[in-house]
Amino acid sequence: FIFAFSANAQHKTVEEVEGKAVGETVENFIATDADGNTFNLKTALKEGPVVLLFYRGQWCPVCNHHLSQLQENLDLIKNKGAKVIAVSPEKQENLQKTKSQTGADFTLLYDKNYKISEDFDVAFVPKEQLIELYDSRLDADLENAHSDNSKRIPVPATFIIDQKGRVVWRHFDRDYKKRASAE
């Protein structure tokens, strides 16, 4: 009991996360995509800038709408030589649900153990009444849909990373309804 309590005490609230700042360097990461392929950020950056965004999960209607809008405007981003990568703490089977719900033709990554979200300082534990709402009304199943039972989700932030691995632009807003547009 004491171990479980102290482990959860380390997790941040939404007010405590700040998001990686413009000018900061991004650590390389390797993750599995919706199709089971391995994604390596360093390798992707050799091809051009990366637009990295975090979304809460396939259960989130605002996330699905945002990802669908990005898909509709994907050419605007690709024409600038950039690649879109969307990151969620949900397991691979839920990434597949997101792909089918949104038509996403860009990379969806499973953030196992919240490593990417923690590096970008976007992972937080929602208040208990929100978790109950997400689970009961939206079928989120936060405890089982993720790689651990911490029930953390990311602030739905967007970061543009240049080929040198630096954040050159970001949209970070704790209000989950406010998202970056493709423009």
Can you tell me about this structure?
The protein is 34% helix and 19% strand. The chain has helices at residues 2-9, 41-47, 61-72, 74-78, 92-102, 115-119, 128-138, 142-145; strands at 30-33, 38-40, 50-54, 83-88, 107-110, 123-124, 153-154, 158-161, 167-171. A seven-stranded mixed β-sheet has the order 2-1-5-4-3-8-9. Strands 6-7 form a two-stranded antiparallel ribbon. The radius of gyration is 16 Å and the shape is globular. It starts with a helix and ends in a 12-residue tail after the last strand.
Helix content: 25-40%
C-alpha end-to-end distance: 48 Å
- Count of DSSP H/I helices: 8
Net shape: globular
Largest beta sheet: what is the strand line-up? 2-1-5-4-3-8-9
Count of beta strands: 9
